[in-house]
Amino acid sequence: xxxxxxxxxxxxxxxxxxxxxxxxxxxxxxxxxxxxxxxxxxxxxxxxxxxxxxxxx
Length: 57
Prior knowledge:
Layout: H1 7-15, H2 29-37, H3 41-56
């Protein structure tokens, strides 16, 4: 018996993409501390990427 897809799951499947980031605890502690200090990690990373895109143009 297959589990029925929820409307939210269907929306996510059609409209989003997930990127996973592996951070090493021994050598990238600075990155871990910074990400732990911000309340919205996804928003913070997106803002950094958008700032980088703006620099390129």
